[in-house]
Amino acid sequence: IQERAWTSPIWYVPTP
């Protein structure tokens, strides 16, 4: 999910 964090909503901590 981390790798999709930035492309997904803010429900997870977005990582550039």
Give a written overview of the molecule.
- This protein has 16 residues and is mainly α.
- The protein has one helix spanning 2-5.
- The chain is globular, with a radius of gyration of 6 Å.
Provide tags for this entry:
16 residues; mainly alpha; 1 helix; globular
Can you summarize this structure?
The protein contains 1 helix and no strands. It has one helix at 2-5.
- The span between the termini is 13 Å
Q: Give me the number of helical elements.
A: 1
Question: Sheet with the most strands?
Answer: none
Unreliable runs: none
What coarse outline follows from CA principal-axis ratios?
Answer: globular
Order of helices and strands, N to C? H
Strands, total number: 0
Tell me the β content.
under 5%
- Structural class category: mainly alpha
Overall pLDDT metric: 61
How are the SSEs ordered, and which strands pair?
Layout: H1 2-5
